[in-house]
Amino acid sequence: MKAMSFEKIGGPEVLHLVDVPQPHAGPGQIRIAVRAAGVNPVDWKIRNGSTLRTIPVALPHIPGMEAAGVVDEVGAGVEGVSIGAEVFGAAQNASAEYAVLDEWAPKPPELTWAQAAGLAMAVETAARGLDLLGIVAGQKPWAGQELGAGQELGAGQEAATGSEPAGTTLLVNGAAGGVGLAVVQLAQARGARVIGTASRDNQEYLRSLGAVATDYGPGLVDRVRSLAPDGIDAALAVSGEGALPDLIALTGSPDRVVSIGDATAADHGVRFTTGAEGRAFYSLREAATLAAAGRLTMPVARALPLTELGEAHRLSEAGHVRGKFVVVLD
Ligand SMILES: NC(=O)c1ccc[n+]([C@@H]2O[C@H](COP(=O)([O-])OP(=O)(O)OC[C@H]3O[C@@H](n4cnc5c(N)ncnc54)[C@H](OP(=O)(O)O)[C@@H]3O)[C@@H](O)[C@H]2O)c1
Prior knowledge:
Elements (H helix, E strand, L loop, with lengths): L1 E4 L10 E4 L10 E10 L1 H7 L18 E9 L11 E6 L6 E9 L6 H5 L2 H13 L36 E5 L4 H12 L3 E5 L2 H9 L3 E3 L5 H8 L6 E4 L6 H8 L5 E3 L11 E2 L10 H10 L7 E6 L3 H9 L6 E5 L2
Parallel strand pairs: 7-8, 7-10, 8-9, 10-11, 11-12, 13-14
Antiparallel strand pairs: 1-2, 3-4, 3-6, 3-14, 4-5, 5-6
Helix pairs in contact: 3-4, 6-7
Bound molecules: NADP nicotinamide-adenine-dinucleotide phosphate.
The site of NADP nicotinamide-adenine-dinucleotide phosphate (NAP) has 29 residues, from helix 1, helix 3 and helix 4.
C-alpha cells in the first residue's frame, strides 16, 4: 500500500511516499481503507524529534494518529462493527491507504470524511480535560468537592445530554484549534457557558458556535472579568504558553485549571494531562451523537492530498489553524 513515511528525524521534507505491506487488525482492532487522516501537532513534534524523550519512535515511521474510512477487516473479539461500516477513530500510522484503529465510533453521515478524520484526537483530549475539571452535564464542578489529582476519568460518560444547564463558566485558552473547538462544543453540550480565546480571525467562528470570544495574551484577566463578572469556575490551557498565572487568578486556584498544552504547568501547581493516566475514548461516541444532532462539528482548515503531508505539517506547525488540517485519499 501507499503511505507517507520518514526514515530520519527532520523537517517536513523528510516525509515521502513509500510502498509498504498492508497492516492487519489484531485482536480488538479493526482495519479501515482510509478516506482521510487528521494531522495533529504531535505528528510534527515526533517528526522533528522534540518529543523523542517522552514518545519514543521506531524508524521508519508512518505518522498519523487518527483517520476516517471504511472497515475492511475486523479483528478477533470485536463486536458491533462490520465490514463496510463507515467509522472514524484513533490509529497509529494513519497517513496511508489502510490503517488499524484501536478505538472508533460510527462516522455520522452529517460529517464529511475530512471532518470526521480530524475528530478523534481532539475529542478524546477535550473530554479528558473536561472530566478532570469535573465538567459534566448538570453539575457545577466545585459543588461540595475539591478537584484533586485523584479526580477520576470517565465522569463525563453519562454526560452530553446538555439538558440541564449547569451554570458553570469555563475559560478555554486557545479555543480555535482542533482541541479547543472540541472543548468548546463538548463543554456546551455538557451545560457549561464557555469563554474562548483566539486570534481576531477566529473569534467570529467561536461566537457562531455559541461561545463568548476574546483575545489571548496580555490583559486577559481584565478582559475575562468584564465578560464574566460572576467569575470563572474552571479553565483549560489548550494552546499558548505563559497564561497559567492568569488562569489561576481568574479561577482562584491551580486546582481549577488543567493544562494540555502548557508544559510549565507543574511550576504553577497545575495538573498537566498527557493521557498516560487514562484516555477518554468513550467520547468518540459522545461526539458522534452530538455531530449527528448538528451540535458538534470540526472545521477543516485545509484538506490536502496524502502526498502533501509535509505541507500539512508545515501549516500545522505555523500554529494558527481553525479546526484541523487533514490529508485525503482518492
Ligand atoms: N496533552 C495532551 O494529551 C495533548 C493532546 C492533544 C494536543 N496536545 C497539545 O495541545 C496543543 C493544542 O493542540 P491542537 O491540536 O488544538 O493544536 P492546533 O489545532 O494546532 O491549534 C493551535 C491553536 O493555538 C492557538 N494559539 C496560537 N498561539 C496562541 C497563544 N499564544 N495563546 C492561545 N492560543 C494560541 C491558535 O489559535 P489562533 O489561530 O486563533 O491564534 C490555534 O488555533 C498542542 O501543543 C498539542 O501538542 C496535547
